[in-house]
Amino acid sequence: MRVKVVCVGGGPAGLYLAILLKRQDPSHDVTVHERNPDGRTYGWGVTYWRGLLDKLRAYDPETARAIEAHSVRWTDGVARVRGLTTRHRGDEGFGIGRHRLLDLLAGRARALGVRLEFESEPTEPPAGADLVVAADGVHSALRGGAADRFGTRVTTGRNPYIWLGTTKVFDAFTFAFTETEHGWIWAYGYAYSGDHSTCVVECSPETCAGLGLDRAGEGEGLALLEKLFADVLDGHPLIARSGASWQPFRTLTNRAWHHGNLVLLGDAAHTTHYSIGAGTTLALEDAMCLADALRAHTGLPEALAAYERRRRAALLSAQSAARYSAQWYENLPRYIHLPPHRMFALLGQRHSPLLPYVPPQLYYGLDRAAGRLEALRRLKRWLGPRAARALHARATSRRS
User: Fold this and answer.
1) What pTM, to 2 d.p., does this model score?
2) Mind spelling out the 3-state secondary structure of 159-187?
């Protein structure tokens, strides 16, 4: 059955949903509205992992091949603390420029017959559409117009951060921690092309204020950060997009994800802290799930309910990981004075719901022992998810 779909928001979620719907049935009438001009976007590079690439291949091999061909990859993680460097082998990771990713998705969508309308941002659900998709981000105008129906909640994190680029091409996912007279400041760096990397810088609000970063002009702020991270930048500059500023991360949730024929997708529905590098992956997986639900159910209410139910369940582990990851950085003094290899090991365990409640040295020893003893590994796998669910339930009950 031919349906008319209007997607507001030309980010990864909206474009990929349009691609999947046209692949399912070329007769579908699909339009994507994007507020920015064609070719203009925010951000630097995005990360993803092998698991997402496997899913992309299953849904649309052509898109998967194009994304992989334009990505850089790494397998190592590097941490630098007090001039000391420790390197660990990890899972295969990928980086791709956000601009490049959107170009690839837009080109594929056009080739399949999707209409792309740039410099266009409907603020109300367009009339005549069978399905309206709000993929217009954290500040979704479509969601805001029915805020009471969706039950939007925003929780502001403690630490401010700034999203920057650099011409330094990191050969591994790099964590750099620098101590100042006002406290610690750290950066996450990863390559996304042959000549650029993303560099996200974070610190406590006290450190940000003490260093004057919260009130410095762009040039002054970048110069200070280049000095603080000179050992990892190797003389390369940091680059800011227009309007880049220090701000705390906003975690967004919604009580409901659909109302009538309007459904939320990607950051309009949920956000997860950037330190787990999952935002783009979760948005694309939203699109996969919604496309599956629309194919499997003939009735729109049933399809949207199934999409919401499945994605809520799938997101629980990522949301838990993001919560504990953000808390790990907010409590950095608890871990930073460990020997670098131990600190880095616990950095890799920051998603654990047990770590905040166990002394770091003890947790490190138990984790090492668990790696050697199958019985302890099984106990850890059994206890971790149960602890996460119990703590999540407790936090939810306190908010309600």
Assistant:
1) 0.91
2) EEEEEEEECCCCCCEEEEEEEECCEEEEE
